[in-house]
């Protein structure tokens, strides 16, 4: 995981692969977004950002309320799904 976090492009690629696997497993967009929010919460609480993009996401996450976090998670899923 640490190698994935060194580069934001690698992180997006990693997340894209996980989202694709979730779709293939039959998960709904809502379920995928909920899992993404849980991952975001874990990363914000346990992992020190490795690059400027992750730092910005963490700062946004830290000021977000629960609804904002759901939106951020959905946006990240959309971002990597369109790549």
TrEMBL record:
Name of a matching Pfam family: DUF3243
Protein name as catalogued: DUF3243 domain-containing protein
Native source species: Paenibacillus ginsengarvi
């Amino acid at each position: 995981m640490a190698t994935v976090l060194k580069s934001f492009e690698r992180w997006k690629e990693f997340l894209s692969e996980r989202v694709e696997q979730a779709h293939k497993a039959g998960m709904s967009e809502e379920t995928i977004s909920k899992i993404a929010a849980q991952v975001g919460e874990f990363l914000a609480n346990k992992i020190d950002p490795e690059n400027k993009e992750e730092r910005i996401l963490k700062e946004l996450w830290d000021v977000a309320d629960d609804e904002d976090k759901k939106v951020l998670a959905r946006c990240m899923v959309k971002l990597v799904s369109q790549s």
